[in-house]
Amino acid sequence: MDLIKYLALDLHIATITFVVMSAAGRVLQQGCIPTGTAEIRRLIKGIRGQLRVTFEEGTLSQWAYEIIEPLAHQVIVCNPRRNRLLSEGSKGDRIDAHKLADLHRTGMLEAVYHGQSGSRILKELVALYIGIVSDTTRVMSRLKAVYRSRGIQTGQRAVYYEKNRQEWLSKLDRPEKRQRAEMLHRQLDQLMVLRREAKKKMLRAARAESGYKILISIPGLGPIRVAILLAIVVTPQRFRSKRQFWTYCGLSVVMRTSSDYKITNGRAVRVRRQTDTRGLTRDFNHLLKYVLKSAATEAIRRGSFQDFYRIRIEKNIAPEMVRLTVARKIAALVLVLWKKGEMFDGKVMLKLTA
User: What is the residue extent of each domain of the chain?
Assistant: First the structure.
């Protein structure tokens, strides 16, 4: 029987620091290698036994996972936000690798999903589109700031349109301000061209995914939201239940209790008391939460959840709580229908809004 060994890697762009630890916690090997495919493979193949590898999620994690996964018995890409032990005491590459190996050996790591690679193209296109949208928004804000700095109100979107450009530029009374605004307008034009191109490619890739037709049938989910869902979730089989999915999406409520038991007649008896809530979970996928909450807003405004929202508002339920409920229902629909391979229909809607 092969001995179990734990390999922890601290990945950097130039070097990789590693520690190999036995199941008993003894350091068997440690060192530093250049960052490269050949070097990683040589390290993995040189370690005998049942090898379990871990490293933190980061820029290099997907690349390293693709290299190591076929060569090791187990690979865990762990969530750095959960590795509080790494922030305690002295800090260094070798110390971090040692702590990671110890956490892996004791089963204290939380894995980040790095499973199917079929959606790799869609993931990259979604990341590209979101980055361009972010850059576009930033340039728009800078452009409006130029006009506001001269006391000119810009309204909603009229200042961005090419047909109104000369009219808006003529309102600027300082040549340096006008020159700055002209450059920002040109930058915005170029970004809008790239944005349309990136959106077109992203949606084409999304429509090729098997779950696209199912998700697009769900209220509030348009083509862009569906593309983001497909890229992030990849497969609904990752989640056992809707509650686990809610936690990943940042829609689950954190509960806190204390002094749960008391001794009665020599036995520990659970105390029945009101459970305190402490808001929504803080460790979640921020983009996915935005997608589902914006889908809920859309479904309430002009979708199938209008009556559901109105009835609960009439019962004096806070609007933000109703929107959260709708977002959770949409998330549950995504998970259940995607797993079953079924389209959304009116019968499902009747059950949801009952």
Answer: 4-105, 120-207, 220-255+285-353
> Residues 62, 49: contact at Cβ < 8 Å?
no
Q: Does domain 4-105 have CATH number 3.30.420.40?
A: yes
Q: Report the C-alpha gap between 154 and 158 in whole angstroms.
A: 7
Which residues, other chains included, contact 259 with Cβ-Cβ below 8 Å and sequence gap of 6+? 271
Tokens 């983009």 correspond to 287
Evaluate whether 292 touches 324 at the Cβ level (below 8 Å).
no
Say what the pTM is.
Answer: 0.82
324 burial type by CB count under 10 A (0-12 exposed, 13-18 middle, 19+ buried): middle
> Is residue 132 within 8 Å of residue 195, measured between CB atoms?
yes
Per-residue pLDDT tens for 300-323? 998 789 989 999 999 999 999 999
For residue 54, the one-letter residue type is T
How wide is the angle at C-alpha 324 spanned by C-alphas 321 and 329, nearest 5°?
130
C-alpha dist (Å) from residue 14 to 7, 39, 152? 19, 12, 50
The dihedral built from the CA positions of residue 294, 300, 305 and 309, taken in this order, carries a sign that is: positive
